[in-house]
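Researcher: Quick test of sequence recovery. Tokens follow.
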């Protein structure tokens, strides 16, 4: 099934270019849009949260107001540095440049079974799916929760339909979130000093992600969402 964002059809490309111009005048963050879903689904016990792929630390900052301690890790040097600057001198938040597959276990940085929340926003498709899910299961404390906002490969008619709906709704949401149009050159001036977020196309379909979650995280809930994202929620038994 073709991804409409990469279609070679002239009519689709023309519509996509028009939408891109409108979206450019009313920019908004798809990832930050889902922070509200994460904050509405926090676990009852809130000692330690781990934000994997923390970027510049926007979500970590929101979690810091709700957890005793927040750990943010990012494999990208620029992102980790920006997040580290954001929380310099804040004892509630520790930031490290680190790959998730090398995240310490059994140390002060959050050992196996010692974390109450793991969040991943637009991160899981950068990782080995099975290894990452299995690692989360080990790191979480009994009763702990995994919350994922992810990207999946377009593969089915349902994926295509939701992508079409997302493309149409995207500028509407932009006008709601960013009603004042950005003037030419204004956005570049505002963002030129920010580190660029690493980008990678997702390799797994939603069905494959759901199958892996079902095998490794029994009872996990996976839902297709608007705006080119899916959500995954899993509670570790016990607690």
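Model:
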């Amino acid at each position: 099934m073709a991804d409409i964002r990469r279609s070679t059809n002239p009519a689709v490309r023309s519509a996509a270019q028009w939408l891109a111009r409108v979206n450019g005048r009313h920019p908004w963050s798809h990832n930050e849009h889902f922070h509200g879903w994460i904050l509405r689904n926090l676990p009852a016990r809130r000692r330690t949260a781990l934000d994997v792929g923390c970027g510049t630390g926007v979500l970590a900052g929101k979690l810091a107001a709700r957890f005793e301690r927040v750990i943010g890790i990012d494999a990208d040097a620029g992102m980790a540095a920006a997040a580290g600057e954001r929380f310099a001198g804040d004892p509630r938040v520790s930031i490290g440049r680190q790959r998730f597959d090398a995240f310490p276990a059994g140390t002060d940085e959050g050992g196996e079974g010692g974390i109450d929340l793991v969040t991943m926003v637009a991160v899981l498709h950068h990782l080995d799916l099975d290894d990452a899910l299995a690692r989360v299961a080990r790191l979480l404390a009994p009763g702990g929760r995994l919350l994922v906002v992810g990207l999946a490969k377009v593969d089915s008619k349902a994926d295509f339909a939701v992508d079409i709906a997302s493309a149409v709704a995207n500028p509407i949401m932009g006008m709601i979130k960013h009603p004042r149009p950005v003037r030419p050159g204004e956005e570049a001036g505002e963002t030129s000093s920010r580190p660029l977020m690493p980008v990678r196309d997702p390799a797994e379909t939603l069905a494959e992600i759901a199958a892996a979650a079902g095998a490794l995280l029994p009872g996990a809930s996976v839902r297709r969402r608007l705006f080119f994202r899916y959500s995954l929620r899993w509670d570790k038994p016990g607690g």
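The first strand starts at residue 48 and ends at 52.
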